[in-house]
TrEMBL record:
This is IS21-like element helper ATPase IstB. InterPro entries: AAA+_ATPase, DNAC/IstB-like, IstB, IstB_ATP-bd, P-loop_NTPase. Gene3D superfamilies: P-loop containing nucleotide triphosphate hydrolases (3.40.50.300). It comes from Algoriphagus halophytocola. Keywords: ATP-binding, Nucleotide-binding. It holds the Pfam family IstB_IS21. Residues 99-236 form the AAA+ ATPase domain. Belongs to the IS21/IS1162 putative ATP-binding protein family.
């Protein structure tokens, strides 16, 4: 067996696949630069580290279950929703997450709440945080089934260990009493060590009506708003403003 084949086989055996794939290029670069053994070995290790980091970020992004559109680099800076590019950049620095603060993105449908929340979650994942994106429907399903199925129980345990939880479209519909109580118990369990991004089109004063319990709504908001920035998004729906027609594409 040739030397390169032996190296590739050993790399696969020890699961250092980046070294195997980049070996010819690193050898060529080292010969061109007349690199020493240490520089050559360092170059191989850097390639392996880069691939492992890339794979780890991909794994965390998959686990976070983010919406497909989550790249804030593509955010429409001309969108008239009351959020300036400077404010977006400040949010993307994640200082609020480092310090354990929550964000509440408040505004009508189509003003960019979900996209902004997903983008900030993607930034957090890329920087090493454990983040999970859940719609209100997703979370209520988990809360209902966590004591009944292994899948829901495992998912519940995962989100309990999250650094950041996104609750999308919270209070969009009225919440039944048992689910409201489970939601409060969940938030009460994690709010001191976990940050939230909440998107909603309901003012906090309307939550009591959606929960049909003013005391429970007050207790829930007390925990979510204790360390929280409320960001009001306004304007017309981006989707409706940029509505597309099938027939226009046929012209």
């Amino acid at each position: 067996m040739e030397t390169n084949e032996q190296i590739n086989a050993l790399c696969r055996q020890f699961k250092i696949t980046a070294m195997a794939s980049c070996l010819p290029q690193v050898i060529a670069d080292s010969e061109k630069l007349s690199s020493g053994y240490r520089d050559f070995f360092l170059a191989l290790l850097k390639q392996e580290a880069e691939l492992r980091l890339k794979n780890e970020i991909a794994r965390r992004r998959k686990a976070a279950r983010l919406p497909l559109k989550n790249d804030l680099g593509a955010y429409d800076k001309k969108a008239e929703n009351g959020l300036t590019p400077t404010r977006i950049n400040q949010l993307r620095e994640l200082n609020w997450l480092d310090q354990g603060f929550n964000l509440m993105l408040l505004g009508p449908s189509g003003t960019g709440k979900t996209f902004l929340a997903a983008g900030l979650a993607a930034d957090a994942v890329d920087k090493g945080y454990k983040a999970y994106f859940k719609t209100m429907e997703d979370l209520t399903g988990i809360l209902k089934l966590k004591d009944l199925t292994r899948t829901a129980a495992a998912e519940y345990k995962r989100i309990l260990r999250a650094d950041l939880i996104i609750l999308d479209d919270i209070m969009l519909f009225p919440v039944e009493k048992s689910v409201a109580v489970s939601l409060f118990n969940f938030v009460n369990q994690v709010y001191e060590q976990t940050s939230f991004i909440i998107t909603t089109n309901k003012m906090p004063t309307e939550w009591a009506k959606m929960l049909d319990d003013e005391v429970l709504a007050t207790a829930l908001l007390d925990r979510l708003l204790f360390r929280c920035d409320i960001i009001n998004l306004s304007g017309k729906s981006y989707r409706m403003k940029n509505r597309q027609s099938f027939f226009e594409h046929q012209k």
